[in-house]
Amino acid sequence: MPLALLALFVGYLLINAGIRNEHPWASVVQAFGGSPPGPPGISPGQAGSISPPGQGVIQGPGTGPLTGTSDGTPAVQRFDAAVRARFGDRLTSAGVCACRKIIPHNGGSSNMWSQHAWCNAKDYKGSAAAMAALMIFANANRRKYHLVNIIPPGTAVNVVHVDFAPAATGTPPCAN
Asked: What share of the chain in percent tops pLDDT 90?
């Protein structure tokens, strides 16, 4: 019986972490007054951030306005193959390449370029259950696929957003 309760608790922590995009032990550490660790697979200080200029910079394919027809960077393609194998047609693409700045979930505006501007991000749409399952899959495989940001559906966009390391920085070629 104690082993079953422990397994249930750990399962809760993993699912909760997948939904909230945080480390599985974050809530336990916070309960005892500590600073929560970052999400798994991300170096300290890297979670949700962009690489410093000149480090890990990738250039997206082509220049000029991007239409979303590209398959994305090799990291995008590798993750997408795994998503298609696991979810089939339950999830569809909501876009890869778009020469735009970040669209905050609060409906505001941002001056930061989206990783979509370098074709280094992909948005997925589907049923609420399929997108929740994708959030869990992405968080469980964050390190394997070098995921930096996994953003759940919000008020501004009803998609799951994923982007990859190394994060591109500066002004994307499409903006020139």
From this structure: 36
Residue 57 and residue 32 share a domain: no
Angstrom distances, CA of residue 118 to CA of 3, 33, 57, 113: 47, 39, 10, 9
Look-up of token digits 């505001």: 108
Of 55 and 20, the structure prediction assigns the larger pLDDT to: 20
Q: How far is CA 62 from CA 20, 67, 99, 123, 161, in A?
A: 35, 11, 11, 20, 22
Task: Note if the bond before 153 is cis, omega within 30 degrees.
Answer: no
The domain in which residue 82 lies consists of 44-175
| Dihedral angle sign, alpha carbons of residues 119, 85, 157, 23 | negative
How many helices (H) and strands (E) would you count in the chain? 4, 4
Q: Is the pTM here over 0.85, yes or no?
A: no
